[in-house]
Design brief:
The chain is mostly helical. The chain has a five-stranded parallel β-sheet with strand order 8-9-10-7-11, sandwiched between helices. Helix 9 (210-227) packs antiparallel against helix 10 and helix 38 (909-926) runs antiparallel to helix 39. It is elongated and about 125 Å long.
Length: 993
């Protein structure tokens, strides 16, 4: 029989097996257990654990660290490791009743309330004393961070509520003399908390110390005036007046009789009785630490209000939602996702945070959704603009927001307390038993929202913010809902709603251009639509032209109303940034690619990776950049245009030039490292040292280098063009050298040609023969792949001339081999063979072994094309031996292809099939050579057809055609024709030599 494991959070986070404490490890590991325990049996996703431990800037290893902590906790718990269970991508602690001190605390305080109501004040006091005895110090002691601090405050508020209730009961039992000292200590520790001061005044008065009671009030009045600029609450004033006139009714105690409940904030002075200082009952079900804020456990300063009497006017039902936007379109998927979050029945109240960049339509979406679900909240719908990002006004303070909400719910202003905590408690009291929807628009941060959250079940809070409000999600259980720009179809529908179906249908191409030039941003589309609506005689094509002329500028999206001016709206988010984040935002516009990685952004800014990650997190938090994939950051065109305006207006030319140089250095050195891993035989170029602050990316394997090239493909093309355009000519031609092998290997002929022709302009400006030689050789490869053999031959012969002039023998060797490829396409097979012989002679006996295998394979290939198949096999055998010694998949694939070709034409079709199949396997294993894979499939199909296997041949050819068509390869048509001539019965055979 296992010993019971008990957990504790009301003090240091601890666990015991029997009487022996379990070692729980370092603070973060204890924090993981604390988060799981505070969920009280609920699931905790891994991302919430990450947020709780590291907040808005977790390290890249955060998820792995969480899993390690859980593993160690399970190991520490030994045979009870199953207490921490994995449920999908979440964890849950299945503690039994009596296993967690917090659960015991809730149960004991829950028992106290019915006992008090039944008149058993002694029994209620026993339960509350037992509950408070469970505390062993400040909750969650030893656990650091914002999450722990917020939860610690929640639990402390829960403890103070229980203590308040116990002290109130003791006053009812006549123990006023005994509680004076304890109440004096509480007042000293919480000088602005009027509930303890109120009880202390009553205890002193009942103990015969009227003057001391009056002095306590005087201290409160002075303190509140100095600290908050307010007077004491009406309840405290009324008690003071009764003590001042020596009211004898205050001396009465109730003994064992259950207390009546009086609303102290609406009572007249004469109505205040000893029961008026009895605190609200502590009900554990009213507080769920996963779904509410620290204020949700702050007790109301008054007793539970009486139900409305028949003669009292009915409570107002507010309906404050603004009107729905007439042009609202789309967002059906997000509306369905949002509606699934609405609490049903007695489910805990929910908070949904709608986020997204400026102008994306957060408020319009929130209002549209709120109006759609309003009937599910019959007790009212509240709307409040918190002005978190207002061009003129300051954000609405939480206390002011609380007053506004309470007044909307029918609480007279004169009855509202001054203290923010008391206001929050009053709001929770008023919302209890009601189903109310609260829409809080344009929030600044989580601190502005937390006091406004309801505690009772059944309510829904919708929050819109330009910030991510990660703390509200991590600490308070809010659910995030992010809005992106509209789809192209939704953008068209928006214009259709604003301009009419006839006008939109008449100019579909202009409509498409307008949608894209507005970056599919709802605000920009609305401004453009308003302009078109004002100029009904103008065609939409005119508006499209106007937007195109101003592309890269926000001038086309200005408006006299700042709320409709795209530049102004974006500025509100920008001006809320820290100076360092604002600088990074301005510099990011210099990056020409569709997205940017963390290391590239760090190099651009000249900062360390950790600092840059924090700044990028701030930009993502403000929705000024997006993170569409882990570690990749992007933004839409209008944000880019806004950043460009800022960069031009605030960045000096020296700073911009230095940033551009760092960016070019970053990609050049990163690409060079990748190129060297992927092509070990290629001649090398010499790079200058990178600028200070550059963090080039390292690659540990050829596969990772290839993956990096694949990810950065579009960025590299754009960076090379940018480098050439801004005079970084050395960077431009050297970057072209770096990408040449990868682009050619992938069959990216178009990108290869674009980059090399751009690099040629830079090389011409430099007049550097080495640069010109490398670029001409690369262009020869690109033109050869495109079947422009005349241009290819001119480029490679120019490269050979230049390499010979500068004495670069390795590059000259490779260029002769490449000339052979051009001559092969032109049909000069003897010339191709001759240049391979020259390449072998230049290599010499001590040359690179991998390059030797390539040249020997070429000699074998050209002998086979000339019909000298047995000589071909001799050259290929030596090449195969060298390649197998290196286990070089890429080279082996090409050598085996040559062997298969020779075997096929010698009539050894089975041996050819064996060679082709291994070649195919090698190409697939190395990856990234789809064109070579496609041609091997075609050769294998020839051998299968020669063996009388037409069905297999057709399948192989069909696969090859799909690959070449996907690449846009010029050989796709010929292979497609080859497939077409194969009849279904397979009676056409491929030639065998």
């Amino acid at each position: 029989m296992r010993e019971q494991v008990r957990f504790a959070v009301l003090g240091p986070v601890s666990a015991w097996r029997g009487a022996v404490e379990v070692g729980l490890g370092p603070p973060r590991q204890r924090a993981v257990l604390a988060v799981l325990l505070l969920a009280e049996g609920g699931r905790v996703p891994v991302d919430r654990l990450v947020d709780a431990l590291w907040g808005a800037a977790p390290p890249a290893s955060a998820v792995g660290s969480v899993r390690t902590y859980v593993h160690r906790l399970r190991r520490a718990l030994g045979e009870d490791a199953a207490l921490i269970r994995s449920v999908g991508d979440a964890y849950v602690v299945r503690a039994l009743p009596g296993d967690l001190d917090l659960a015991d605390f809730r149960e004991l305080t829950a028992r106290a309330e019915p006992a008090r109501r039944a008149g058993d004040l002694h029994g209620a006091a026993v339960h509350l004393r037992d509950a408070l005895a469970l505390w062993r110090g400040p909750a969650l002691s030893g656990v650091r961070g914002e999450f722990a601090q917020v939860r610690r405050e929640q639990l402390e508020a829960l403890r103070l509520s229980a203590l308040e209730c116990l002290l109130g009961i003791r006053l009812e039992l006549g123990e006023h003399a005994q509680v004076v000292t304890e109440l004096a200590g509480l007042v000293a520790g919480h000088p602005l908390d009027e509930r303890f001061r109120e009880m202390l005044m009553l205890a002193l008065y009942r103990s015969g110390r009227q003057s001391a009671a009056l002095e306590t009030y005087a201290e409160a009045r002075t303190l509140l005036a100095e600290e908050l600029g307010v007077d004491p609450a009406p309840a405290l004033q009324h008690l003071y007046e009764r003590i001042l006139r020596g009211d004898g009714d205050l001396l009465a105690v109730r003994g064992g009789v259950g207390p009546a409940t009086v609303d102290r904030h609406s009572a007249t002075p004469d109505a205040v009785t000893p029961d008026a200082v009895t605190p609200n009952a502590v009900t554990p079900d009213a507080v769920t630490l996963d779904t509410v804020t620290s204020d949700a456990v702050t007790p109301a300063p008054s007793a539970t209000p009486q139900p409305p009497s028949p003669h009292r006017p009915a409570r107002p039902v507010p309906a404050q939602l603004p009107s729905d936007l007439p042009g609202f379109v789309g967002r059906e998927a997000q509306l369905a996702q949002a509606s699934a979050l609405v609490p049903e029945g007695d489910a805990p109240s929910a908070t949904v945070v709608i986020g997204g960049t400026a102008g994306v339509g957060k408020t319009a979406f929130a209002i549209h959704w709120a109006r759609r679900i309003a009937p599910r909240f019959p007790d009212g719908q509240l709307y409040l603009n918190l002005r978190g990002f207002d061009p003129v006004g300051a954000p609405v303070p939480p206390a002011q927001a609380l007053r506004t909400l309470l007044e909307a719910l029918g609480v007279p202003p004169r009855e509202l307390p001054e203290d923010q905590d008391a206001l929050a408690a009053r709001l929770r009291t008023v919302l209890t038993g009601r189903r109310v929807l609260i829409l809080l628009d344009n929030a600044r941060d989580a601190g502005q929202i937390r006091p406004l959250l309801p505690g009772a079940p059944g309510c829904l809070v919708i929050v819109t913010s330009r910030n991510r409000l990660g703390g509200l999600v991590a600490v308070d259980g809010a659910r995030p809902l992010r809005l992106d720009v509209l789809t192209a179809r939704e953008g068209r529908d928006l214009l259709l709603r604003r301009l009419g179906a006839e006008r939109v249908a008449a100019e579909p191409e202009a409509v498409r251009e307008i949608v894209e030039l507005c970056a599919r941003l709802p605000l920009a589309l609305a401004v453009a639509a308003a302009r078109a609506a004002d100029r009904t005689a103008f065609p939409l094509a005119a508006l499209a032209d106007e937007l195109a002329e101003g592309h890269g500028s926000l001038d086309a999206f200005t408006d006299a109303d700042q709320a409709a001016d795209v530049r102004a709206v974006l500025s509100w988010s920008y001006h809320a940034l820290s100076p360092a984040a604002a600088r990074l935002f301005r510099l990011l516009v210099l990056h020409p690619g569709p997205d940017v990685s963390l290391p590239a952004a760090a190099s651009l800014a000249g900062l360390g990776a950790a600092a840059t990650r924090s700044l990028l997190a701030e930009l993502v938090h403000a929705h000024l950049v997006d993170e569409p994939a882990p570690g990749r950051y992007a933004w839409h065109d209008l944000l880019r245009a806004y950043a460009a305006e800022l960069s031009a207006g605030t960045g000096g030319p020296d700073e911009i030039t230095a940033a551009r140089r760092r960016m070019a250095d970053h990609y050049l050195h990163s690409a060079y490292a990748a190129a060297r891993l992927m092509d070990l035989t290629r001649d090398r170029i010499v790079l200058a040292e990178p600028s200070p602050g550059v963090h080039s990316e390292s690659h540990t394997t050829p596969q990772r280098a290839m993956a990096w090239f694949g990810t950065e493909r579009a960025v590299l093309v754009a960076v090379l063009k940018e480098a050439s355009a801004h005079g970084f000519d050395v960077h431009a031609w050297q970057l072209a050298w770096c990408v040449e092998h990868h682009f050619g290997r992938q069959g990216l002929w178009h990108e290869l040609g674009v980059t090399l022709r751009t690099a040629l302009q830079s090389a011409d400006r430099l007049g550097d023969p080495t640069a010109l030689a490398h670029i001409h050789r690369g262009l020869a490869q690109a033109e050869s792949y495109a079947k422009r053999t005349g241009d290819a031959r001119a480029h490679i012969e120019r490269a050979i001339e230049l390499f010979a002039k500068v004495g670069d023998v390795p590059a000259l060797t490779e260029s002769h081999r490449q000339l052979s490829v051009v001559l092969e396409v032109q049909g000069d097979l003897e010339g191709a063979l001759d240049h391979h012989r020259q390449a072998l002679e230049l290599l010499g006996p001590d040359g690179d072994g991998r390059l030797r295998s390539w040249i020997l394979n070429g000699l074998g290939w050209y002998h086979s094309l000339l019909g000298r198949h047995r000589e071909a096999l001799e050259f290929c055998a030596t090449a195969l031996e060298l390649a197998r010694a290196r286990d070089d998949d890429y080279t082996l694939g090409h050598v085996l292809n040559s062997i298969g070709h020779a075997r096929h034409h010698l009539g050894a079709h089975d041996e050819a099939v064996t060679a082709f199949e291994e070649a195919l396997a090698r190409f697939r294993h190395v990856g990234g050579v789809p064109w070579a894979e496609a041609h091997t499939l075609a050769s294998l199909a020839d051998s299968r057809l020669a063996l009388g296997q037409p069905d297999r041949a057709r399948a192989l050819l069909a696969e090859g055609v799909r690959i070449l068509e996907r690449l846009g390869h010029p050989d796709a048509g010929a292979m497609r024709e080859k497939l077409a001539v194969l009849t279904p019965d397979g009676d056409r055979a491929a030639p065998s030599g």
